């Protein structure tokens, strides 16, 4: 992270603060003012004056500006993760194992079992399941659709962006469910889908990597999944784990249907195995 500082306007104490911010990188976003004051052994008043001196109302507005300038770019996240692997002097797979264990533990800790069971029942009994999966979530959505279609669920992938979404909105009914992947922040399309649910009365389920977000007041069910620290390259292991649990839960809920459809699939494969051999 490299910010532009006008050193002529900074006192010696404020230069120490600026130096600490530069050395902390994106981790500065996780500090409170009190923690920052303690780390630098200065008063809270000194920290508060610092933000005004560099053109911000407070620490919160400084953080917001830092985010807006895309200091947390994919390139920087990957670099931070690679540096962490090197600095820990660990084999790559050992670092990933530790990181994954922590992400899964954090995901499970925040999981509301009752909400999870309700969401499975809602999806199992819906007329049609719509999935909205922008950006990196597209692979998760494809996995979900592939597995759940075997259980006899009718599934449609919603357009990721733009006016094409209206073509799908007009078909949504109160018996339907919209499953949204909402990583990092709520996009405009997700906002429209959640807002329209208020009048169309379909259920909405959100999987997000944010504990605090705009989704909280809008969705019927929200499930948190940990994808790593803000400054790291984000992993999809914990989200995949949660998606697999949704699939297994729905398969169990629709046990008779699931087994019947899977048996039919096996029969079709056996019948046409010579004409359509499996890819190796």
From TrEMBL:
Biological process (GO) annotations?
carbohydrate derivative metabolic process
Domain HTH rpiR-type residue range list: 1-73
Q: Name one Pfam family in it.
A: SIS
Q: Which GO terms describe its molecular function?
A: carbohydrate derivative binding; DNA binding; DNA-binding transcription factor activity
- Please indicate which superkingdom the organism of origin belongs to: Bacteria
Name the PROSITE patterns on file.
HTH_RPIR
The name of this protein is: HTH rpiR-type domain-containing protein
Organism for this UniProt entry = Ureibacillus sinduriensis BLB-1 = JCM 15800
